Structures are given as structure tokens and as C-alpha cells.
From TrEMBL:
Pfam families, per database record: AP_endonuc_2
Name this polypeptide is given: Sugar phosphate isomerase/epimerase
Residues annotated as domain Xylose isomerase-like TIM barrel: 25-227
Organism of origin: Cohnella nanjingensis
Keyword field: Isomerase
Domain of life of the source: Bacteria
Entries under InterPro entries matching the protein: IolE/XylAMocC-like (IPR050312), Xyl_isomerase-like_sf (IPR036237), Xyl_isomerase-like_TIM-brl (IPR013022)
């Protein structure tokens, strides 16, 4: 059986996080999540206070999503934060308007990847569906992977966005075996809208996805739901319960 530690991407509860930072973290831990993708704390909260609260809750920082469609990030500060927090991964997402644009950005991804590697971290590219556009017959995401050094740039694939882009998530994860240490897991409703769904409530085959992820060397499954029809905490609890019902959760060892 393929089991994984389960982390949360708190974009799902972004509004609640802005209103009650520590209370939101407490609710996520209470659901059962073991890891979290988290960045520097909000104004008025020190890193020491943040990390003390996370430790008390049993939530491990696994990495940070640094930016969307921007290279304007203080990577030195983020790397320093992740050293303090014990996280290993830095991820970003981008938009691309041409093959030339994608090639230029791939060069920059290699540069950032080298910076992260020098800081003993792993740099990841996180996909959406637009990377499944084709330039000269090749998916943008395949181009990015071809043009980046696997020692410097790896992947944080996303099951929903792979399916939205027209590919089978399990097959695409297997295609990039060895380059996907983190996997964002989210489901898709049936029907033309293909709206976000809680894991196990939609059309994606998560046992096949888990088998592909295990074969690809994925370390963590990271639950995220960009939008939903329920309260976001309820959605995250449903996703966690369904992952448990599928016997896909590897429980952490008891804390000493």
C-alpha cells in the first residue's frame, strides 16, 4: 500500500488565515494535517512565535510557495527562514506568453535553483493548466522541464490542473519520475464546469495517483482546494478523511 505524510497548502483557508492566523493553524492541525507549506509570518508575528506555535501543534513546515508569476522574491530571506523552520522546498508558478518567453524564464529558473541548492534547499516549479498549451507541438511544462537542470529545478505537480490541462495525472506524474518530491492533490467535479472537488468526491483516481507518486519518489501529498462549495475547513476535513479511508495516509511516529 502506498502511504504518504499529508501536508496542507493554506491558500485554501487564505481568508481565515488573514483574520485569525494562529486559530487557523490550530484548526488545520486538528483535522490531522502533519505538514504545511508556509512562508514568513504576518506583520506583528515573529518567526520564533510562529515556529513555537507550529511545534506545539505538531505542524511541520515542509516548504514555501514563494510567488505567482514573479521573480521579485527575496530568496535569501526566504532561504534563511526555511533554515530556521526546517523546510526543504521553495516553489513558484509562472505565466508564459510565447516559446521565447518560456525559454527565457527557464534560464531564470535554473539560476534560482542554483541559489536554492547552494542553500541546501530544493527549488520546485508548480504547474497550472496553462502549461499544457503547446509551443511548436510541445507542452510548455515539458519545455520547461527539458530546459532546466534536474539537479536545480524539480516539480510540484498538481493533480487537478494536470487533468484540467487534458492529461491523466497518474501518467503525467510517472512521466516525471524523480522530479516530483511534492504533489498537490485536489479533485475535480464531473461535468463541463470541471470545478474543484474535495479529494474522493470527484472523478480523479487517487489510488492510481498514489501508485504513480510512490513510483516517482514523491515525499509528501499536499492537499489544496483553490475554491469550493463548502466551508473551506469542512472541505479540507472531507479530503483528509477520504485519504484516510483510501488508506493513503502514513501516520507519523509518536513524538517523544
Amino acid at each position: 500500500m502506498n502511504r504518504f505524510p499529508i501536508a496542507i497548502q493554506p491558500y485554501t483557508v487564505r481568508e481565515a488565515l488573514g483574520q485569525d492566523y494562529f486559530g487557523t493553524l490550530e484548526k488545520l492541525a486538528a483535522i490531522g494535517y502533519e505538514g504545511i507549506e508556509l512562508g514568513l509570518p504576518p506583520e506583528g508575528v515573529t518567526v520564533a512565535e510562529q515556529l513555537k506555535a507550529l511545534d506545539a501543534l505538531g505542524l511541520k513546515v515542509i516548504g514555501s510557495h514563494a510567488s505567482f508569476n514573479s521573480f521579485d522574491v527575496d530568496f535569501d530571506r526566504l532561504i534563511d527562514y526555511l533554515h530556521q523552520a526546517g523546510g526543504k522546498y521553495v516553489a513558484i508558478s509562472l505565466l508564459f506568453d510565447s516559446k521565447e518567453d518560456a525559454l527565457r524564464k527557464a534560464e531564470r529558473l535554473n539560476e534560482i535553483g542554483e541559489l536554492c541548492r547552494a542553500g541546501n534547499l530544493t527549488f520546485l516549479y508548480h504547474n497550472h493548466d496553462w502549461e499544457f498549451r503547446k509551443f511548436d507541438g510541445e507542452y510548455v511544462l515539458d519545455l520547461i522541464m527539458r530546459e532546466t537542470d534536474p539537479r536545480l529545478v524539480q516539480l510540484e505537480l498538481d493533480t487537478y490542473w494536470i487533468a484540467k490541462g487534458g492529461e491523466d495525472p497518474a501518467a503525467y506524474i510517472a512521466k516525471w519520475a524523480g522530479r516530483c518530491p511534492l504533489l498537490h492533490v485536489k479533485d475535480m467535479e464531473p461535468g463541463e464546469e470541471r470545478f474543484f472537488a474535495e479529494i474522493g468526491e470527484g472523478v480523479l483516481d487517487f489510488r492510481a495517483i498514489a501508485e504513480a507518486a510512490a513510483g516517482a519518489g514523491t515525499e509528501w501529498l499536499v492537499v489544496e482546494q483553490d475554491a469550493g462549495r463548502r466551508d473551506p475547513f469542512e472541505s479540507l476535513a472531507i479530503s483528509y478523511r477520504n485519504l484516510a479511508a483510501m488508506d493513503l495516509i502514513r501516520k507519523p511516529a509518536p513524538r517523544p
